[in-house]
Design goal:
The chain is an alpha+beta fold and 414 residues long. The chain folds into two domains: 289 residues, Bira Bifunctional Protein, Domain 2 (BirA Bifunctional Protein, domain 2, 2-Layer Sandwich); 88 residues, Anticodon-binding domain (Rossmann fold, 3-Layer(aba) Sandwich). Helix content is 31%, strand content 29%. The chain contains twelve helices and 21 strands. The strands form five sheets. Strands 9-10-13-11-12 form a five-stranded mixed beta barrel. A hairpin with a 6-residue loop joins β20 and β21. The longest helix is centred in the middle third of the chain and has 21 residues. Bound molecules: adenosine-5'-triphosphate and magnesium ion. The site of adenosine-5'-triphosphate has 16 residues, from β8, β13, β16 and α8.
Protein backbone atom coordinates (compact mmCIF):
# COMPACT_ATOMS: atom_id res chain seq x y z
CA UNK A 1 0.00 0.00 0.00
CA UNK A 2 1.17 3.49 -0.86
CA UNK A 3 1.23 5.76 2.14
CA UNK A 4 -0.07 8.65 0.03
CA UNK A 5 -3.24 6.57 -0.38
CA UNK A 6 -3.55 5.56 3.27
CA UNK A 7 -6.16 7.92 4.72
CA UNK A 8 -4.94 7.69 8.30
CA UNK A 9 -2.48 10.24 9.65
CA UNK A 10 -0.03 9.81 12.49
CA UNK A 11 -0.24 12.32 15.31
CA UNK A 12 2.17 13.67 17.90
CA UNK A 13 -0.22 13.44 20.84
CA UNK A 14 -2.84 10.95 21.90
CA UNK A 15 -6.16 12.30 23.30
CA UNK A 16 -5.58 13.84 26.73
CA UNK A 17 -8.05 11.47 28.39
CA UNK A 18 -6.30 8.33 27.10
CA UNK A 19 -4.17 6.90 29.91
CA UNK A 20 -3.16 3.49 28.57
CA UNK A 21 0.05 3.06 26.61
CA UNK A 22 -1.46 0.64 24.10
CA UNK A 23 -4.23 3.02 23.07
CA UNK A 24 -1.93 6.06 23.10
CA UNK A 25 0.50 4.44 20.67
CA UNK A 26 -2.17 2.79 18.53
CA UNK A 27 -4.06 6.08 18.20
CA UNK A 28 -0.92 8.11 17.47
CA UNK A 29 0.19 5.64 14.79
CA UNK A 30 -3.28 5.54 13.19
CA UNK A 31 -4.28 1.97 14.06
CA UNK A 32 -7.38 2.81 16.07
CA UNK A 33 -9.58 5.74 16.85
CA UNK A 34 -11.26 6.42 20.16
CA UNK A 35 -15.02 6.83 20.06
CA UNK A 36 -15.45 6.97 23.84
CA UNK A 37 -14.06 5.17 26.88
CA UNK A 38 -13.75 1.46 26.09
CA UNK A 39 -15.02 1.88 22.52
CA UNK A 40 -12.54 1.97 19.64
CA UNK A 41 -12.75 1.99 15.85
CA UNK A 42 -10.26 -0.24 14.04
CA UNK A 43 -8.70 1.74 11.18
CA UNK A 44 -7.10 0.02 8.15
CA UNK A 45 -3.73 -0.60 9.84
CA UNK A 46 -5.38 -1.79 13.04
CA UNK A 47 -7.70 -4.11 11.19
CA UNK A 48 -4.74 -5.72 9.42
CA UNK A 49 -3.12 -6.55 12.75
CA UNK A 50 -6.38 -7.77 14.25
CA UNK A 51 -6.99 -9.99 11.21
CA UNK A 52 -3.48 -11.46 11.47
CA UNK A 53 -4.06 -12.34 15.11
CA UNK A 54 -7.49 -13.71 14.22
CA UNK A 55 -5.98 -15.89 11.48
CA UNK A 56 -3.40 -17.42 13.83
CA UNK A 57 -6.16 -18.25 16.30
CA UNK A 58 -8.37 -19.60 13.50
CA UNK A 59 -5.63 -21.94 12.27
CA UNK A 60 -5.10 -23.34 15.76
CA UNK A 61 -8.85 -23.73 16.39
CA UNK A 62 -9.32 -25.50 13.06
CA UNK A 63 -6.40 -27.79 13.96
CA UNK A 64 -8.36 -29.02 16.99
CA UNK A 65 -11.51 -29.63 14.92
CA UNK A 66 -13.19 -26.30 15.60
CA UNK A 67 -15.96 -25.35 13.18
CA UNK A 68 -16.34 -21.61 12.64
CA UNK A 69 -19.74 -19.93 12.86
CA UNK A 70 -21.19 -16.60 14.04
CA UNK A 71 -23.85 -16.19 16.69
CA UNK A 72 -25.94 -13.06 17.08
CA UNK A 73 -25.18 -9.93 19.06
CA UNK A 74 -28.86 -9.36 19.91
CA UNK A 75 -29.97 -11.77 22.60
CA UNK A 76 -33.36 -13.28 23.40
CA UNK A 77 -34.04 -12.85 27.09
CA UNK A 78 -35.98 -16.12 27.26
CA UNK A 79 -32.97 -18.34 26.70
CA UNK A 80 -30.97 -16.46 29.36
CA UNK A 81 -33.82 -16.62 31.84
CA UNK A 82 -33.54 -20.42 31.78
CA UNK A 83 -30.13 -20.18 33.44
CA UNK A 84 -31.00 -17.14 35.53
CA UNK A 85 -28.35 -15.06 33.80
CA UNK A 86 -30.59 -12.36 32.30
CA UNK A 87 -30.77 -10.82 35.74
CA UNK A 88 -28.45 -7.84 36.29
CA UNK A 89 -27.80 -9.15 39.78
CA UNK A 90 -26.34 -12.36 38.34
CA UNK A 91 -24.60 -10.84 35.29
CA UNK A 92 -23.71 -7.24 36.07
CA UNK A 93 -22.25 -6.27 32.67
CA UNK A 94 -25.40 -6.44 30.50
CA UNK A 95 -26.29 -3.76 28.00
CA UNK A 96 -30.02 -4.07 27.37
CA UNK A 97 -32.33 -2.23 25.08
CA UNK A 98 -36.10 -1.90 24.49
CA UNK A 99 -37.64 -3.02 21.23
CA UNK A 100 -39.99 -0.55 19.55
CA UNK A 101 -42.36 -3.48 19.12
CA UNK A 102 -42.30 -4.11 22.86
CA UNK A 103 -40.04 -6.25 25.02
CA UNK A 104 -36.36 -6.14 25.78
CA UNK A 105 -33.24 -7.65 24.17
CA UNK A 106 -29.69 -7.89 25.50
CA UNK A 107 -26.40 -7.29 23.71
CA UNK A 108 -24.35 -10.48 24.05
CA UNK A 109 -21.64 -10.34 26.73
CA UNK A 110 -20.84 -14.04 26.07
CA UNK A 111 -22.57 -16.91 24.24
CA UNK A 112 -23.02 -20.06 26.33
CA UNK A 113 -26.82 -19.87 26.39
CA UNK A 114 -27.49 -19.16 22.70
CA UNK A 115 -25.00 -21.72 21.41
CA UNK A 116 -26.38 -24.38 23.73
CA UNK A 117 -29.86 -23.69 22.41
CA UNK A 118 -28.65 -23.81 18.79
CA UNK A 119 -27.09 -27.21 19.49
CA UNK A 120 -30.43 -28.64 20.73
CA UNK A 121 -31.47 -28.56 17.05
CA UNK A 122 -28.41 -30.52 15.93
CA UNK A 123 -27.40 -32.90 18.71
CA UNK A 124 -29.69 -35.73 19.76
CA UNK A 125 -27.63 -38.93 19.63
CA UNK A 126 -24.19 -40.07 20.77
CA UNK A 127 -23.46 -40.28 17.04
CA UNK A 128 -23.73 -36.48 16.82
CA UNK A 129 -20.94 -35.98 19.36
CA UNK A 130 -18.43 -34.52 19.87
CA UNK A 131 -18.99 -31.04 18.41
CA UNK A 132 -16.55 -28.13 18.65
CA UNK A 133 -17.79 -24.76 17.42
CA UNK A 134 -16.28 -21.31 17.61
CA UNK A 135 -16.64 -17.75 16.45
CA UNK A 136 -14.99 -14.37 16.32
CA UNK A 137 -17.69 -12.05 17.47
CA UNK A 138 -18.24 -8.66 19.02
CA UNK A 139 -19.13 -8.81 22.71
CA UNK A 140 -20.68 -6.01 24.73
CA UNK A 141 -19.92 -5.59 28.41
CA UNK A 142 -20.83 -2.67 30.60
CA UNK A 143 -17.42 -2.67 32.28
CA UNK A 144 -17.17 -0.24 35.21
CA UNK A 145 -13.57 0.63 34.49
CA UNK A 146 -12.47 1.06 30.89
CA UNK A 147 -9.05 2.64 31.26
CA UNK A 148 -6.87 -0.03 29.66
CA UNK A 149 -7.41 0.92 26.04
CA UNK A 150 -8.26 -2.02 23.76
CA UNK A 151 -7.39 -4.42 26.56
CA UNK A 152 -10.71 -3.70 28.26
CA UNK A 153 -13.35 -2.65 25.79
CA UNK A 154 -17.05 -2.15 26.44
CA UNK A 155 -17.38 -3.43 22.89
CA UNK A 156 -14.64 -5.89 21.91
CA UNK A 157 -13.82 -8.91 19.78
CA UNK A 158 -13.75 -12.34 21.36
CA UNK A 159 -12.90 -15.75 20.00
CA UNK A 160 -15.07 -18.16 21.90
CA UNK A 161 -15.07 -21.89 21.30
CA UNK A 162 -17.57 -24.22 22.92
CA UNK A 163 -17.05 -27.96 23.21
CA UNK A 164 -19.82 -30.54 23.37
CA UNK A 165 -18.82 -34.04 24.47
CA UNK A 166 -20.67 -37.15 25.50
CA UNK A 167 -18.88 -37.53 28.81
CA UNK A 168 -16.34 -36.11 31.21
CA UNK A 169 -13.48 -38.13 29.67
CA UNK A 170 -14.20 -36.55 26.28
CA UNK A 171 -14.22 -33.09 27.82
CA UNK A 172 -11.02 -33.73 29.78
CA UNK A 173 -9.16 -34.88 26.66
CA UNK A 174 -10.37 -31.94 24.59
CA UNK A 175 -9.54 -29.49 27.36
CA UNK A 176 -5.88 -30.57 27.19
CA UNK A 177 -5.87 -30.18 23.41
CA UNK A 178 -7.33 -26.69 23.71
CA UNK A 179 -4.73 -25.81 26.32
CA UNK A 180 -1.94 -26.92 23.94
CA UNK A 181 -3.52 -24.90 21.11
CA UNK A 182 -3.59 -21.82 23.35
CA UNK A 183 0.11 -22.25 24.09
CA UNK A 184 0.80 -22.30 20.33
CA UNK A 185 -1.29 -19.18 19.77
CA UNK A 186 0.56 -17.17 22.41
CA UNK A 187 3.92 -18.41 21.12
CA UNK A 188 3.04 -17.51 17.55
CA UNK A 189 1.82 -14.02 18.48
CA UNK A 190 5.05 -13.20 20.33
CA UNK A 191 3.90 -13.20 23.98
CA UNK A 192 4.47 -16.88 24.80
CA UNK A 193 7.72 -16.34 26.71
CA UNK A 194 5.90 -14.34 29.41
CA UNK A 195 2.50 -16.04 29.32
CA UNK A 196 1.70 -18.51 32.10
CA UNK A 197 -0.98 -21.13 32.31
CA UNK A 198 -2.59 -20.02 35.55
CA UNK A 199 -4.77 -22.04 37.90
CA UNK A 200 -8.05 -20.27 38.61
CA UNK A 201 -11.28 -21.29 40.31
CA UNK A 202 -13.21 -23.95 38.46
CA UNK A 203 -16.89 -23.74 39.38
CA UNK A 204 -19.07 -26.74 40.17
CA UNK A 205 -17.65 -29.13 37.56
CA UNK A 206 -13.92 -29.06 38.04
CA UNK A 207 -11.59 -27.97 40.77
CA UNK A 208 -9.71 -25.51 38.59
CA UNK A 209 -10.12 -23.59 35.38
CA UNK A 210 -7.13 -22.03 33.66
CA UNK A 211 -6.32 -18.52 32.62
CA UNK A 212 -3.51 -17.61 30.27
CA UNK A 213 -1.89 -14.63 31.94
CA UNK A 214 0.77 -12.48 30.28
CA UNK A 215 3.12 -10.87 32.76
CA UNK A 216 3.06 -7.12 32.12
CA UNK A 217 3.23 -3.98 34.25
CA UNK A 218 0.06 -2.65 32.64
CA UNK A 219 -1.91 -5.69 33.80
CA UNK A 220 -4.99 -5.38 36.00
CA UNK A 221 -4.55 -8.86 37.52
CA UNK A 222 -2.08 -10.30 40.01
CA UNK A 223 -0.69 -13.80 39.61
CA UNK A 224 1.79 -15.87 41.58
CA UNK A 225 4.37 -17.39 39.28
CA UNK A 226 6.44 -20.52 39.76
CA UNK A 227 9.28 -19.78 37.37
CA UNK A 228 10.85 -23.23 37.41
CA UNK A 229 7.60 -25.07 36.67
CA UNK A 230 6.37 -22.38 34.29
CA UNK A 231 2.93 -22.25 35.93
CA UNK A 232 1.09 -19.74 38.07
CA UNK A 233 -1.95 -19.46 40.32
CA UNK A 234 -4.26 -16.48 40.49
CA UNK A 235 -5.34 -14.63 43.61
CA UNK A 236 -8.58 -16.59 44.09
CA UNK A 237 -6.83 -19.93 44.37
CA UNK A 238 -3.71 -18.87 46.26
CA UNK A 239 -4.65 -21.27 49.06
CA UNK A 240 -2.82 -23.96 51.03
CA UNK A 241 -4.95 -26.57 49.29
CA UNK A 242 -4.08 -25.43 45.78
CA UNK A 243 -0.38 -25.13 46.60
CA UNK A 244 -0.46 -28.68 47.95
CA UNK A 245 -2.27 -29.93 44.81
CA UNK A 246 0.45 -28.39 42.68
CA UNK A 247 3.29 -29.51 44.91
CA UNK A 248 4.65 -26.00 45.39
CA UNK A 249 5.17 -23.69 48.34
CA UNK A 250 4.25 -20.04 48.80
CA UNK A 251 7.93 -19.06 49.09
CA UNK A 252 8.63 -20.33 45.58
CA UNK A 253 6.04 -17.99 44.08
CA UNK A 254 6.62 -14.47 42.83
CA UNK A 255 3.76 -11.98 42.62
CA UNK A 256 3.45 -10.33 39.21
CA UNK A 257 1.05 -7.99 37.46
CA UNK A 258 -0.54 -9.66 34.45
CA UNK A 259 -3.11 -9.51 31.68
CA UNK A 260 -5.60 -12.34 31.15
CA UNK A 261 -5.29 -13.00 27.42
CA UNK A 262 -7.35 -16.18 27.42
CA UNK A 263 -9.12 -18.69 29.56
CA UNK A 264 -10.46 -22.21 29.39
CA UNK A 265 -13.22 -23.59 31.57
CA UNK A 266 -14.96 -26.93 32.09
CA UNK A 267 -18.66 -26.16 32.16
CA UNK A 268 -19.89 -29.73 32.62
CA UNK A 269 -23.71 -29.76 32.42
CA UNK A 270 -24.20 -26.27 33.86
CA UNK A 271 -25.80 -25.05 30.62
CA UNK A 272 -26.91 -28.26 28.93
CA UNK A 273 -29.19 -29.20 31.85
CA UNK A 274 -31.27 -26.02 32.17
CA UNK A 275 -31.42 -25.63 28.37
CA UNK A 276 -32.28 -29.27 27.70
CA UNK A 277 -29.29 -30.18 25.53
CA UNK A 278 -29.61 -34.00 25.79
CA UNK A 279 -28.48 -36.95 23.74
CA UNK A 280 -29.32 -40.65 23.68
CA UNK A 281 -26.39 -42.95 24.43
CA UNK A 282 -25.73 -46.38 22.91
CA UNK A 283 -27.98 -48.07 25.47
CA UNK A 284 -30.83 -45.67 24.80
CA UNK A 285 -30.40 -43.62 27.99
CA UNK A 286 -30.98 -39.89 27.84
CA UNK A 287 -28.00 -37.85 29.08
CA UNK A 288 -26.92 -34.22 29.31
CA UNK A 289 -24.14 -33.09 26.97
CA UNK A 290 -20.86 -32.21 28.75
CA UNK A 291 -19.52 -28.77 27.77
CA UNK A 292 -16.45 -26.59 27.97
CA UNK A 293 -15.70 -23.01 26.88
CA UNK A 294 -12.48 -21.47 25.63
CA UNK A 295 -12.07 -17.69 25.21
CA UNK A 296 -9.41 -15.38 23.84
CA UNK A 297 -9.67 -11.63 23.31
CA UNK A 298 -7.87 -10.89 20.00
CA UNK A 299 -8.12 -7.13 20.63
CA UNK A 300 -6.88 -7.54 24.21
CA UNK A 301 -4.03 -9.65 22.83
CA UNK A 302 -3.19 -6.90 20.32
CA UNK A 303 -3.10 -4.34 23.14
CA UNK A 304 -0.94 -6.68 25.21
CA UNK A 305 1.60 -7.04 22.38
CA UNK A 306 1.86 -3.24 22.18
CA UNK A 307 2.27 -2.90 25.95
CA UNK A 308 4.98 -5.55 26.00
CA UNK A 309 7.01 -4.84 22.90
CA UNK A 310 6.95 -1.09 22.25
CA UNK A 311 9.84 1.26 23.00
CA UNK A 312 10.20 5.04 23.42
CA UNK A 313 9.89 5.53 19.65
CA UNK A 314 6.75 3.53 19.10
CA UNK A 315 5.35 0.09 18.43
CA UNK A 316 7.48 -3.00 17.68
CA UNK A 317 5.32 -5.63 15.97
CA UNK A 318 6.40 -9.28 15.86
CA UNK A 319 6.60 -10.49 12.23
CA UNK A 320 3.57 -12.75 12.60
CA UNK A 321 1.07 -10.01 13.42
CA UNK A 322 2.62 -6.90 11.80
CA UNK A 323 0.34 -4.97 9.41
CA UNK A 324 3.07 -5.16 6.74
CA UNK A 325 6.36 -7.03 6.59
CA UNK A 326 8.35 -4.23 4.97
CA UNK A 327 8.21 -0.45 5.28
CA UNK A 328 9.74 0.98 2.15
CA UNK A 329 10.79 4.61 2.64
CA UNK A 330 12.10 6.84 -0.14
CA UNK A 331 14.05 9.99 0.77
CA UNK A 332 14.25 13.14 -1.31
CA UNK A 333 12.13 13.71 -4.34
CA UNK A 334 14.44 13.16 -7.29
CA UNK A 335 12.95 11.29 -10.25
CA UNK A 336 15.67 8.59 -9.93
CA UNK A 337 14.76 7.84 -6.33
CA UNK A 338 11.05 7.78 -7.11
CA UNK A 339 11.53 5.42 -10.06
CA UNK A 340 13.73 3.11 -8.00
CA UNK A 341 11.19 3.18 -5.15
CA UNK A 342 8.29 2.42 -7.48
CA UNK A 343 10.23 -0.45 -9.09
CA UNK A 344 11.16 -1.97 -5.73
CA UNK A 345 7.56 -1.62 -4.52
CA UNK A 346 6.28 -3.42 -7.63
CA UNK A 347 8.83 -6.16 -7.07
CA UNK A 348 7.69 -6.65 -3.47
CA UNK A 349 4.11 -6.91 -4.74
CA UNK A 350 5.09 -9.52 -7.31
CA UNK A 351 6.88 -11.52 -4.63
CA UNK A 352 3.86 -11.27 -2.34
CA UNK A 353 5.77 -9.38 0.36
CA UNK A 354 3.24 -7.10 2.10
CA UNK A 355 4.80 -3.63 1.87
CA UNK A 356 3.83 -0.18 3.07
CA UNK A 357 5.46 2.31 0.70
CA UNK A 358 6.20 5.74 2.15
CA UNK A 359 6.04 7.71 -1.08
CA UNK A 360 5.08 10.96 0.69
CA UNK A 361 6.98 14.22 0.17
CA UNK A 362 8.16 14.72 3.75
CA UNK A 363 11.45 15.38 5.48
CA UNK A 364 13.53 12.27 6.32
CA UNK A 365 13.20 12.94 10.07
CA UNK A 366 9.41 12.89 9.86
CA UNK A 367 9.40 9.74 7.77
CA UNK A 368 11.70 7.88 10.13
CA UNK A 369 9.73 9.00 13.18
CA UNK A 370 6.51 7.74 11.58
CA UNK A 371 8.16 4.49 10.57
CA UNK A 372 9.34 3.84 14.14
CA UNK A 373 5.93 4.77 15.52
CA UNK A 374 4.08 2.44 13.14
CA UNK A 375 6.51 -0.36 13.99
CA UNK A 376 6.75 -2.52 10.85
CA UNK A 377 9.53 -5.12 11.44
CA UNK A 378 11.83 -4.20 8.52
CA UNK A 379 12.49 -0.75 7.08
CA UNK A 380 14.10 -0.37 3.65
CA UNK A 381 15.37 3.06 2.63
CA UNK A 382 16.04 4.13 -0.95
CA UNK A 383 17.76 7.50 -1.38
CA UNK A 384 20.34 9.24 -3.60
CA UNK A 385 22.97 7.81 -1.30
CA UNK A 386 21.79 4.20 -1.55
CA UNK A 387 21.39 4.47 -5.32
CA UNK A 388 24.97 5.68 -5.66
CA UNK A 389 26.16 2.74 -3.58
CA UNK A 390 23.96 0.37 -5.57
CA UNK A 391 22.54 -0.94 -2.28
CA UNK A 392 19.50 -0.77 -0.01
CA UNK A 393 19.60 0.55 3.54
CA UNK A 394 17.89 -2.07 5.67
CA UNK A 395 17.03 -1.71 9.35
CA UNK A 396 15.14 -4.04 11.63
CA UNK A 397 12.79 -2.17 13.95
CA UNK A 398 14.51 -3.86 16.89
CA UNK A 399 18.07 -3.04 15.73
CA UNK A 400 19.98 0.15 16.49
CA UNK A 401 22.02 0.20 13.27
CA UNK A 402 20.98 0.01 9.63
CA UNK A 403 22.83 -2.26 7.20
CA UNK A 404 23.67 -1.64 3.58
CA UNK A 405 22.94 -4.66 1.43
CA UNK A 406 22.24 -5.38 -2.20
CA UNK A 407 18.82 -6.44 -3.33
CA UNK A 408 19.71 -10.13 -3.72
CA UNK A 409 20.97 -10.27 -0.17
CA UNK A 410 17.87 -8.49 1.15
CA UNK A 411 15.53 -10.87 -0.66
CA UNK A 412 17.36 -13.80 0.92
CA UNK A 413 16.76 -12.33 4.41
CA UNK A 414 13.04 -12.43 3.66
P1 LIG B 1 -11.61 -10.18 32.98
O1 LIG B 1 -11.45 -11.05 34.19
O2 LIG B 1 -10.34 -9.56 32.50
O3 LIG B 1 -12.73 -9.20 33.09
P2 LIG B 1 -13.17 -12.30 31.99
O4 LIG B 1 -12.68 -13.36 32.87
O5 LIG B 1 -14.48 -11.67 32.28
O6 LIG B 1 -12.06 -11.16 31.81
P3 LIG B 1 -13.95 -14.03 29.84
O7 LIG B 1 -15.38 -13.84 30.05
O8 LIG B 1 -13.35 -15.29 30.23
O9 LIG B 1 -13.16 -12.80 30.48
O10 LIG B 1 -13.59 -13.69 28.32
C1 LIG B 1 -12.67 -14.46 27.54
C2 LIG B 1 -11.53 -13.58 27.06
O11 LIG B 1 -12.02 -12.39 26.44
C3 LIG B 1 -10.64 -13.07 28.17
O12 LIG B 1 -9.68 -14.04 28.51
C4 LIG B 1 -10.02 -11.85 27.54
O13 LIG B 1 -8.93 -12.21 26.72
C5 LIG B 1 -11.13 -11.32 26.67
N1 LIG B 1 -11.85 -10.21 27.31
C6 LIG B 1 -12.69 -10.27 28.36
N2 LIG B 1 -13.18 -9.09 28.66
C7 LIG B 1 -12.65 -8.21 27.76
C8 LIG B 1 -12.80 -6.82 27.52
N3 LIG B 1 -13.61 -6.06 28.27
N4 LIG B 1 -12.11 -6.26 26.49
C9 LIG B 1 -11.30 -7.02 25.71
N5 LIG B 1 -11.12 -8.34 25.88
C10 LIG B 1 -11.80 -8.94 26.89
MG1 LIG C 1 -11.32 -13.74 34.22
Amino acid sequence: MRQTKLFTKTRKEAPADEVSKNAQLLIRAGYISKEMAGVYTFLPLGLRVLKNIEQIIREEMNAIDGQEMILTALQDKEVWEKTGRFSDDVMDVWFKTELNAGGVVGLAPTHEEPITRVMTNHISSYKDLPVYAYQFQTKFRNEVRAKSGIMRGREFLMKDLYSFDADQAGLDAYYEKASDAYKKIFDRTGVGHVTYKTFASGGAFSKYSHEFQTVCEAGEDLIYVHEAKGVAVNKEVLTDEALQDLGITREELVEKKSIEVGNIFKLGTKFSEPLGLMYTDEEGNSKSVVMGCYGIGPSRLMGTIVELLSDEKGIVWPEAVAPFRVHLVILGNSPEVRVAGDLFYEKMKTLGVETLYDDRELRPGEKFADSDLIGIPTRVVISEKTLQAGKLEVKKRTATEAQMMDEEEFLRTL
